[in-house]
Write a structure and sequence with these properties.
With about 290 residues, this protein is α/β, with parallel strands linked by helices. Helices cover about 45% and strands about 20% of the residues. Bound molecules: ligand C2E and magnesium ion (3 copies).
């Protein structure tokens, strides 16, 4: 579409881009008071051990319910928070709330929390986390931080130092969305990591695309050789589970097993000893 710019000149105008930019500006503005207004909550998605079929962890996922717009897409919310310098305060709220909740879970259930780059590079991060852990009585060994390959874009000596400090405190580190970013085998070799989370783009193609299955197999082999464990993200079907089990993947997470849920629903899930039909079926087909 074209329109006059007021000075008599004709200008092309992209309404869609304009709408998107306006929405972002609006969200950025609305995000400013969201923490104080109590508009955030957390959802927890269980992570299961493939060997035992039991829940071994939960990932905390931020949820923002805007009073007028309703639930905002989390990716969009995080991206606006990162670009507008709000991720550190929001991230600190997430860490505190999640650590508080996880302190009430069984010892066998670990807490995973996603961290943005700006949080990771903050020199105070480790102390802030340790304070929160001791306040709520959660052992550091029950906490896992999920970082993406974006940390590799930075000076590696710095990155390595931060990772070592967190791990020295007993906190585990997982590399999230592995395979979608700037993955480099050199980083895997030199950085202290505990777990690789295989991105759902790979997991979901594992049964239909032999090349993808080969890549997943290779990722699992590399992780094992480097003494890291693996988690497959975004498992949506039983057939994917069967392949992941055969390939020796350690843990799984996805809608086929359990969707992200409110803290109360998770508490019921944890105490009810609820079995997951897809996992039972996958272990049955493995035994046959
Ligand atoms: P992520 O860390 O990779 O989290 C997994 C995302 O995949 C979640 O989306 C989850 O709801 C979704 N998911 C889980 N199972 C399935 C499945 O079987 N199929 C499909 N299609 N999706 C599945 P969500 O909650 O919208 O979060 C999106 C991203 O936002 C997260 O990706 C993470 O990068 C970021 N994020 C979420 N919470 C936080 C937070 O507290 N802090 C930071 N820095 N980032 C966060
Ligand atoms: Mg994650
Ligand atoms: Mg992920
Ligand atoms: Mg992600």
């Amino acid at each position: 579409a074209a329109k006059f710019d007021g000075k008599g000149r004709f200008r092309f105008f992209d309404y869609e881009m304009d709408t998107r930019a306006r929405r972002r500006l609006f969200l950025e503005h609305e995000l400013r008071g969201a923490l104080q207004r109590g508009e955030f909550h957390l959802a927890y998605q269980p992570i299961f051990s493939l060997a035992t079929g039991r829940i071994c962890g939960c990932e905390a996922l931020l949820r923002w319910r805007h009073p007028r717009l309703g639930l905002i897409d989390t990716q969009e919310c995080i991206s606006v928070a990162e670009d507008s310098g709000q991720i550190e305060s929001i991230g600190e709220w997430v860490l505190n709330a999640a650590i508080r909740d996880a302190a009430g879970w069984p010892d066998s259930v670990r807490l995973s929390v996603n961290l943005s780059l700006a949080q990771f590079i903050n020199p105070a991060l480790c102390d802030t986390i340790l304070t929160s852990l001791s306040e709520h009585g959660l052992p550091a060994t029950r906490l896992e931080l999920e970082l993406t390959e974006s940390i590799f874009l930075r000076d590696t000596t710095d990155t390595e130092g931060h990772l070592r400090a967190l791990r020295a405190a007993g906190i585990r580190i997982a590399l999230d969305d592995f395979g979608t970013g700037y993955s480099s085998l050199a980083y895997l070799r030199s950085l202290p990591l505990d777990r690789i989370k295989i991105d759902r783009a790979f997991v979901q193609a594992i049964t239909t695309h032999p090349e993808t299955a080969a890549i997943v197999r290779a990722i699992i082999a590399i992780a094992k050789a480097l003494d890291m464990d693996t988690c497959a993200e975004g498992v949506e079907g039983g057939a994917q589970l069967t392949v992941l089990r055969a390939e020796g993947c350690d843990t799984v997470q996805g809608f086929a097993l359990a969707e992200p849920m409110a803290p109360a629903a998770l508490a019921a899930f944890l105490t009810g000893n609820i079995t997951v039909p897809a996992l039972v079926a996958a272990s049955r087909s493995a035994a046959e």
